[in-house]
Amino acid sequence: MPWTFFGIELASRALQSMQMAMNTTGHNLANINTPGYSRQRVNLATTEPQVLQGVKTLFMGTGVRVDSIQRIRDIFLDGRIAATNSEYQRLNTLYQRLTQVEDVFSEPTDAGLSRQIVAFFNAFQELSTNPENVGTRAGVYQQAEGMTRTFRQLAGRLDEIFAEMEQRVQATAGEINRIAKSIADLNVKIRHNKALGTAPGDLLDNRANLIEKLSEYVNVRATEMPDGTVRVSIGEFALVDAERAGALPQGVVYASANKGFTDGAGVHVRVTGGSVRGLMDAMEYISAYRARLDTLANELVSAVNAIHQTGYGLDGNTGYRLLEGTDALTIRVSEDIADINHIAAGVTSAPGDGGKALEIARLRQTPLVGLDNKTIPDYYTAIVAELGEHTRAASAGQESQKIILQNLQAERESVSGVNMDEEMANLLRYQRSYQAAAQLVSVMDAAIADMLAAFVGRR
Hints:
Elements: H1 6-30, E1 40-46, E2 50-52, E3 58-60, E4 64-71, H2 75-105, H3 113-129, H4 134-195, H5 201-217, E5 221-224, E6 230-234, E7 237-241, E8 244-245, E9 251-253, E10 260-262, E11 268-270, H6 274-308, E12 323-324, E13 332-333, H7 355-362, H8 376-416, H9 420-458
Antiparallel strand pairs: 1-4, 2-3, 5-6, 6-7, 7-8, 9-10, 10-11, 12-13
Helix pairs in contact: 1-9, 2-5, 2-6, 2-8, 3-4, 3-7, 3-8, 4-5, 4-6, 5-6, 6-8
């Protein structure tokens, strides 16, 4: 038979359970604007019933208890978001960097190399019709100076962007290592709490947020272990394994299909997603643009000098070079024509001969073997067109991934996000239950007081 204070104990358990439910609801409302927070839910269960022996055996309920505080989260959805986020960051970073490179090329504007090349050949076209005019010769020199300066500026700026990206990759590697250490520390705390039989929802949220942050940088895969820890991998490389956090190698490989980090001694971390991969892809593209720009500059110097050195200047001499250098960073106007009278315009030294100037002017229409049988303007146009195509592809890809990511985030918000109306309704429900339990305590207290008074009266 139930003991005297059975009703009070039952009501006390109800009070404690409703108090915990209200506290959890308040915790949800307090974190309604906290990024990455997953709402928590109190799971109530009946306590073990009491067996009453008599004419027949009866089971009488003994009240309510808090069975668990559940963190509402879909780990499979988290995995899809991490993968999509990684691809979005890759394409978005690549698009931003290629847009930066497009600004450097400045096409099509008067500051672009394309119009500088055209102006250079146009100057020789004009020189061929008036080879002895000092102003025309000065114009040739100025156009050659402007074109070569643009080559050098373009190459120098590309080198600066490449170096800045390389530094950013190294800095990001350091940030990844710091995040890995934080995840490993959280693994220790979560494993300890799980061993005690609790599920630390806020710690799990913190760890999930760090893993999602990692997915912005690189492709990651998180595998939850039975003890509550997670193993975080980048490809085959274990970045975090329980309480152990690995460190990315310092070497960067960007010019192959196996882009990633390496120590040069067998350890290679292949990166396929995230902003780091976007930077590496951009570095590979920039390196290719830079190499083709060097090829263009070298072929331009060789082709122009091959014609110019066989022509005659106003001083009646030949063999003067017009340009110097072997690549886009070293191309410049030769010291040979510091005196503009040395600019070779004629096939012969005869006055009015502009044959060589015309040959140089026609060079713009001559396919060169070293330029894949393209003309000088067409070869440069192909570089710019390829850059534009890469930028458009990255733009379209990142826009598509952005929409997918937003849809997945909205889906997660519907599962894990805090709904104020729902929480306020729960709070009111728990409040009423708490009030009812408190009233039960009052009733039981009064009943016990009456019973005690009755016993005292008999005596």
